[in-house]
Amino acid sequence: MEVRVLVVVLLGVLTVSARTDVLERRNNRLIDRIKSQGYSAELHRVVTKDGYVLGLHRIPHGKNGSPGPRPVVFVMHGLMSASSHFVHLGSEYALAYNLADAGYDVWMGNHRGNRYSREHVSLNPNDSVEKLEFFDYSYEDVGLIDLPAMIDYALAASRQEKLHYIGHSQGGTVFLALASLDPEYSNKKIASAHLLAGVGYSDNFPSAPLKKVSDFGGIIYTLGSRLGIVEISFDALRRSERQAVEAMEQDGVVDFCAGDGVYKAYCEMIGVPYLLGDRLSLPVVPEMGGASLKQLAHFAQNIKDGKFRRWDYGPVTNLRVYRSFIPPSFDLRKITIDVTMHYSLSDIVLNELDVLAMAAVMPNSKARKIERDTFKHEDYIFSKDSKELVNDHIIEALNQF
């Protein structure tokens, strides 16, 4: 019963029409929102080597600052997130504003396919055929292709040689992928990195329900791909909510996120605040960024296998691509950048033991536990406590450079 409704929800996540003019309005609304807080704001577009058009949002200086060269900080969002989340809390508490007021040139990235980067030089994400190629990317593609494109652009535009990197959740994952597979590039361009609940090792994955869902990740991805369901977005989740209600009524389900079954696991998979209605409790995110189904499938592979490694194509294709039947792990020993891994004890997708294990193998890394045991995975972005518990510590560390 539960599995049937879960599949209804996941496979109800259909691609929602978003023409270029809609994308333009989205980007402009965010720029206007930042300006309304009293900051300068800029929209930049970067084209990756494989044709994706990425939206970058820049806050070049603080409220009382003036134009001119200053250290660059590049901030990268997590899964299902977007650059707008780094300004969500407003000028007093949001990370991007805090950094700008502290004297930094702040660039906020958006990975391919999300609400601010849903564009390609030749592929139409709304076309029933072309969308299959458009959304055929995992978090590894974000790390190896999107990050260098955005970093290079930000450095060139700001006329700086290096920048500081801050990544939340998947924003930390893609940094670890890039820095381990291309350490020469990373060492040349990145002075330091702060990973906010940066997901990597999963030997001690903390959520049993979410781990249960990961066991079905391959099936869901295969089925979704065959049906042409390759994108996850906010509007699609809202539409799938209505379909799920009907299925739940038939099965007599009362609270979607309650209990210990796959419903709760689905809610935990998103890892954001929930809207608790009369019956259905699908998660609600302010301006959900969106992602490809393959991104989630890649995380599911890692969770299921308890390994932090590259995309698993299957034994035959793995042998051709990697010269091994099993995809290679990301070798964190190659990361020599100054890395601080911020973590909390109430995080449902990252265990303290895995953070400490990652920090132990990176030569210049340290782990920093948040000084509030109830601090959650999403609190880095949505809790006002993040200013005191996270942002101020990051700025103090950056100032030392």
What's the order of the H and E elements? HHEEEHEHHEHHEHHEHHEHHEHEHH
Largest sheet properties: 8 strands, mixed
Average of pLDDT: 86
Give the C-alpha Rg.
20 Å
Distance between the termini: 56 Å
Secondary structure class reads alpha/beta
- Reading off the top of the CATH hierarchy, the class of the domain at 33-204 and 333-399 is best stated as Alpha Beta
Count the helices. How many? 16
Amount of beta strand: 5-15%
Q: Numbering strands along the chain, what is their spatial order in the largest sheet?
A: 1-2-4-3-5-6-9-10
What is the helical fraction, as a range of percent?
40-55%
Low-confidence stretches: 1-19, 269-284
CATH superfamily of the domain at 33-204 and 333-399: Alpha/Beta hydrolase fold, catalytic domain
Shape: globular
Tally of strands: 10
